Task: structure prediction
Amino acid sequence: VQLQASGGGLVQAGGSLRLSCAASGSLFSINGIGWYRQAPGKQRELVAGISNDDITHYADSVKGRFTIFRGDAKNTVYLQMNSLRPEDTAIYYCMSDTTYGHFWGQGTQVTVSS
Result:
């Protein structure tokens, strides 16, 4: 499974961004996709995840502000981020949980200015 993440950028506090994660390859093996982030000097943390039957879960820090959803093509997962805060600044990664293991996409930088 290959993942292509995109959509990061620079935004002011209170603004919005939408990240995309497009999956290709052995799509039948995917059990779910998650978005993670890693800020400088911090460990990578789970932000949001979505299973194959569209069950979602979120980190407490983003509940009510971020939404993870699947596109019409089903092979693309989006992370809609609203009411962004400076503490959301990080490199965001998508990860697929598959029957063959975990596969990571390249990161996309999100910077929120105060």
Notes: The CA atoms of residues 4 and 16 lie 20 Å apart. The chain is about 0% helix and 60% strand. The longest strand covers residues 30-38. The mean pLDDT is 96.
